[in-house]
Design brief:
heterodimer; A: mainly alpha; 4 helices; 69% helix; flat; B: alpha/beta; Rossmann fold; 3 domains; 4-stranded parallel beta sheet; 3-stranded antiparallel beta sheet; 15% strand; globular
Chain lengths: 117, 322
């Protein structure tokens, strides 16, 4: 019961801080925000496109290859420990896992991940 | 009481100045960086005082007003050398007035300047669609009157990226004052360049001063200040100091920054596309011929000829661009 009360007090303190701090920050903040101040600084120039834009995740091919090989090794070490005890069942499970991962490797291969540039 | 003490404390610091440089006064403004009472800042957001140096042409008044309004309150403007730019005696010393302005602002003795532009969004909200984006799904549309960036093939490796279009200048730090460029960026790679208006005319600058500009643009402010101190030394810097600085430069700079052809404003639309943004700014920093100046300086540091001012109009060399 005491633990529950402590938990409730911590939660109440956290909630009060979360609700109160923006109010305090707003009260202390004297900056008038005008539309020109909200614009990006381009030395007097203006943007012609809206700020909603997408950024290409250029590292995605590296991330794909990393997950395909690294995750494989991460699960194969503990698997190797129990392989002798578990036998054919472990073999089949790891086989299925490797098939799924190798599909990712094949996809990356098709996309040219392994081509040296 | 505490606020008053904080104000006193802040007023004792160097006054943060954003310079909007007009024709003929670029070197004068750069020399302010050597004054301890003044801190030249890179954006109006960090400044208390806007220093308008020289007469800004009428077509750039709106850009100046935009920069003015981007200074946070309290703010003040100092117009400097508007008529005196071409006089024999130079434009005079703005530092005492800058310091006084900054002090009055921070102690609350002077009201902040009112904005010059209307306080309304440049393009009001005219959204339609599920999220007000006005287009189809997640693509296209013109939220707040500005079109969303659409994809195009990237120059670097052909990946389809969003094309961000904007104009930059005439008061962007590191770029020559007055230069207005319409740029298309994808990521940090310049795709298209169009010169909207060229740099303001400036008196010739010595190679050391141009090296200082280039160093400041590449993010080496202490080296830039050292080059500037050598550039303003009277009557001329000691050969020993120049040699030491030249050795330091060659340690610090990548070899790719040396031995480049002279640069003219007509080359920009062909030269900039494909460059990354930081390199483009470094290329533009000391227009004209910043890299030429550097290569002329580095191989023979003790020879007196690189210290002499060179004419600011370098003849364009046709067909020598990579």
């Amino acid at each position: 019961m005491l633990q529950l009360l402590t938990l409730f007090l911590v939660f109440a303190g956290a909630a009060t801080a979360v609700l109160l701090l923006p109010v305090v920050a707003g009260a202390l903040d004297r900056r008038p925000r005008s539309a020109p101040q909200g614009a990006p600084f381009l030395g007097g120039g203006t943007p012609a496109t809206h700020a909603w834009s997408r950024v290409h995740v250029r590292y995605y091919t590296m991330a794909l290859v990393f997950i395909a090989f690294e995750m494989e090794m991460m699960f194969m070490y503990p698997w190797a420990v129990v392989f002798v005890a578990e036998g054919a069942k472990a073999m089949a499970e790891m086989g299925m896992f490797l098939v799924v991962l190798s599909l990712g490797i094949l996809y990356g291969w098709r996309e040219g991940v392994f081509r040296w540039q | 009481m505490a606020v008053r003490a904080l104000g006193q404390f802040a007023a004792a610091a160097p006054v943060a100045v954003f310079p909007a440089v007009g024709p003929g006064l670029r070197s004068h403004v750069e020399d302010l960086a050597l004054r301890a009472e003044v801190e030249l800042v890179e954006t109006p957001r960090h400044a208390n005082v806007l220093l308008v140096a020289g007469t800004i042409p009428a077509e750039h008044r709106e850009a100046l007003a935009r920069v003015h309004d981007q200074l946070p309150n309290p703010r003040a403007t100092l117009r400097w050398g508007a008529e005196a730019g071409r006089d024999e005696g130079g434009p005079g010393d703005p530092v005492p007035r800058l310091v006084a302005l900054g002090r009055e602002l921070l102690l609350g003795e002077r009201p902040s300047e009112a904005p010059l532009l209307a306080d309304e969004p440049p393009h009001p909200w005219r959204g339609r669609g599920d999220h007000g984006q006005g287009g189809e799904g997640m693509m296209g549309g013109t939220p707040y009157g500005r079109p969303m960036a659409m994809t195009g093939d990237d120059l670097r490796d052909g990946l389809a990226l969003d094309r961000l279009e904007f104009t930059i200048g005439p008061f962007f730090p590191h770029l020559p004052p007055g230069l207005v460029l319409r740029l298309v960026l994808q990521g940090d790679v310049v795709q298209e360049t169009e010169v909207v208006s060229g740099p303001y005319p400036q008196p010739p600058a010595s190679p050391l001063r141009r090296i200082s500009r280039l160093l400041r643009a590449t993010g080496a402010p202490s080296l830039a200040e050292r080059a500037l101190r050598l550039a303003v030394a009277e009557p001329e810097p000691a050969a020993r100091q120049v040699a030491a600085f030249s050795r330091r430069l060659r340690q610090a700079l990548p070899p790719a920054l040396e031995n480049r052809e002279p640069l003219a404003i007509e080359h920009l639309p062909h030269l900039l596309p494909g460059m990354e943004w930081g390199r483009a700014v470094a290329t533009l920093a000391g227009l004209p011929a910043p890299l030429f100046a550097l290569s002329a300086f580095a191989p023979s540091p003790i020879a007196p000829s690189p210290i002499a001012p060179q004419p600011d109009s370098t003849p364009p060399s046709e067909g020598s661009w990579p």
